[in-house]
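Standup notes
- DV: blocked on the single-chain target, sequence here:
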Amino acid sequence: MYTRSRWFPALAALIAALGIGSTGCIKQMILDGQIESTRKASTAVDTLQDFEVANTVAFAGIAQFEGMHYLAPDNKDALFMLTKSWAGAAFGFIEDEMEQAEDIGGIDSPMYLYQQSRAKVAYERAIFYGIKLLELKHEGFKAATKNDQTMKEWLSAFDDPEEDTQNLFWTAQAWMSKVNVAKDDPAMVSELYIGVALMERAVELDETYMFGSGHTALGAYHARSPMAELEDGKKHFDKALALSGGKSLMTKFQLAAKYYCMKSDKEGYVRTLNEVVEAGDVLPQARLTNAIAMRKARRYLSKERMKNCGF
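- DV (later): unblocked, structure below
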């Protein structure tokens, strides 16, 4: 029979052991909750209109999520935000520096090549995190990239419109954008179908995501050259504009920069870019994306940019 003097130390030891074991779980719960809250709060960045402020905020946010990922390597929210943040920052800000360098010194200038290299690395980092995020649900990405059919078979496992759409979209956006900035590299171009397959699956799951941005990306893909599938591209652009009520200025910018440029339609090109520049604050939820589109539209109305379309 146990006496107080015998069972109390044993009970105290048990409580201490449980406390030590639960401390790690509690810390993980707090960290996961903080990451989840930070992801939810990050949507406020989409409403910023000041390009320079957003530029600073974007890279500060990346640093924050890199640290969170280090502490919680399998946290889905951290992986998603790193995929989205690296892809978005590369497209919105690093490519902006790259285009400025091109306008000043051309595509052979040291500054252009430097910014191009930065963009590639940023997209590759986004892709790394995106694939890791996707494989938390379904492993086998590398084997699936054998060809278009194996990609589609692998992607069939992604069937959740709410969660899978956004994970697929940002991984696809990074993949397709990386190829776009490195279109002089045949090896990268040969893998474009992977990004396209990811984006097509995202659109299949939820074509309304980010005001039809998946259709915009596919429109740009199909209108990538005068010999590509221009009318298929136009259909995607039209669908994206319908989904956003014509308020997604990035869709209009891409319509001009890709479709009208490749069609050698100067009137449509100039008219659409001017619509972007003069649009105003038409979509507060996507104010930052629209501000980036306006900035690009002004640049693409320059004589040098128009010469690239043969105008």
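- Follow-up: The radius of gyration is 23 Å.
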